[in-house]
Amino acid sequence: MSSAEQISPLDPVDLIYQHGLAIVPGFIAADICTALRADIRQLLEAGEFRQAGVGRGAAQQTNQDIRRDRIHWLDGSTPAQQAYLACMEEYRIALNSRCFLGLLDYEAHFAHYNPGEFYRKHLDAFQGRSNRRVTTVVYLNDGWQSEWGGELEIFTAQDESLLKVEPQAGTLVSFLSDEFPHQVLPATQPRLSIAGWFRINQSLAGVIDPAR
């Protein structure tokens, strides 16, 4: 796979450095998006997706008033996942080099939203209370139409709507996890994406924490 800088018409690293937020169409190549969609279809048919929860570790619980998507964590077990994770590893290294963020680890899951499902406004990390430092969302929906809805709405720290992003295949949305509240709006068609987080190490035992 080409590096993030080669396949992207914009530089997400520079956008994160300047604004803490990057939106980059075409970040992931079309053939990799196609292969990732095939992975999702196989996992859905095998019943491998589970209802997403709210919170982490022992505090995690399901709450369908807040979110209704189903997820499956990437494990690098297919060529498509390996290609995706390799691209994100290049992005991690570039972010550390330019922004000095100390990113050590990356975790990600597929997210599948049925028509009408949503994820209410939330913040991925609270300052000083989470090791999630940079959020990534990559969309896998081919030929998405504006009238179908399903946008990611991003807010300012003052709770004002900043922008909405259509879930077009290959688009990367990336932002500082503790600065941008966001929500997933309902769609009229199934909606596919990969949500991920670059993390720092806050443990004293040399182990990434907390558990997902």
Describe the protein's architecture and organization.
The chain has 212 residues and is of the alpha+beta class. The protein has one domain: Jelly Rolls (Sandwich). 23% of the residues lie in helices and 27% in strands. The chain contains 4 helices and 11 strands; from the N terminus they run H-H-E-H-E-E-H-E-E-E-E-E-E-E-E. It has helices at 4-7, 12-19, 30-45, 79-99; strands spanning 21-24, 50-51, 70-73, 105-113, 119-122, 132-139, 152-155, 161-165, 172-176, 182-184, 191-199. The strands form 2 sheets. A 7-stranded antiparallel sheet has the order 1-9-6-11-4-3-2, with helices on one face. A 4-stranded antiparallel sheet has the order 5-10-7-8, with no helix packed on it. A hairpin with a 5-residue loop joins strand 7 (152-155) and strand 8 (161-165). Helix 2 crosses helix 4 (79-99). Mean pLDDT is 88; it is low at 1-9.
- In DSSP terms (H or I, runs of 4 or more residues), the helix count works out at 4
The proportion of strand residues reads 25-35%
Main sheet: strand order: 1-9-6-11-4-3-2
Output mean pLDDT.
Answer: 88
Largest sheet descriptor: 7 strands, antiparallel
Which topology does CATH recognise?
Answer: Jelly Rolls
| Class of secondary structure makeup | alpha+beta
Portion in helices: 10-25%
Q: Say how many strands there are.
A: 11
Alpha-carbon distance between the two ends: 28 Å
Question: Which series of helices and strands comes N to C?
Answer: HHEHEEHEEEEEEEE
Shape: globular
The CATH architecture comes to Sandwich
CATH homologous superfamily (4th level) name: q2cbj1_9rhob like domain
Identify the quaternary structure here.
single chain
The domain tally reads 1
CATH class: Mainly Beta
